[in-house]
Amino acid sequence: MQYTSSGELYYIGDESVHLIKSQKRDVEVFAHDKAHTVTFNYTSDGELIYVYSKYADANENFVTYINSNGKVKTTFEVNQKPKYVSASNEICVLFSDKVVVYSMTKGEEKQSYKCDDSITSANKLSTKIFITRNQLIDVLDDEE
């Protein structure tokens, strides 16, 4: 569970996403059994970046940007299972062999970086991709 910047509450289950408005009204963003949660994270403003598939262990996954009112702003498909997702001004998706940066508004691929499976997180800050590997923070700088 995570509060949004407007005081609403996200609830993410294995197969659904809900937004609790005014601490009493449940708004279903993704219905039960319509989405299988792969990974998720929050922007610095408390908005949700949610990755799901239509069925468990699918290769086709969807990255969705959901604002603090529970409205889906952007959805785009990726043909690999993401390990981690983050967002600031752009959406940064970590796969087992690469990090890809997407436009937050259109979902267009902007940059791609090669990496290996030892990386556990990737975050884009300004023009740099910061990664975590074996509990160490490093900068990824070999753009494809």
How would you characterize the overall build of this protein?
This protein has 144 residues and is an all-beta fold. 0% of the residues lie in helices and 57% in strands. The chain contains no helices and 15 strands. The chain has strands at 2-3, 9-12, 17-21, 25-30, 36-42, 48-53, 61-66, 72-78, 84-87, 90-94, 98-103, 109-114, 119-125, 128-133, 136-140.
Characteristics:
single chain, about 140 residues, mainly beta, four-stranded antiparallel beta sheet, 15 strands, about 0% helix, about 55% strand, globular
The share of residues in helices is under 10%
**How are the strands ordered across the major sheet?**
1-2-3-4
SS-derived structural category: mainly beta
Number of strands: 15
Per DSSP, the total helix count is: 0
**What characterizes the major β-sheet?**
4 strands, antiparallel
- Over all CA atoms, what is the radius of gyration? 15 Å
Shape call: globular
Question: What is the overall pLDDT average?
Answer: 86
Taken as a percent bin, the fraction of beta residues is over 45%
Question: What gap, in angstroms, lies between the N and C termini?
Answer: 36 Å
Low-confidence stretches: none
Please write the string of helix (H) and strand (E) elements.
EEEEEEEEEEEEEEE
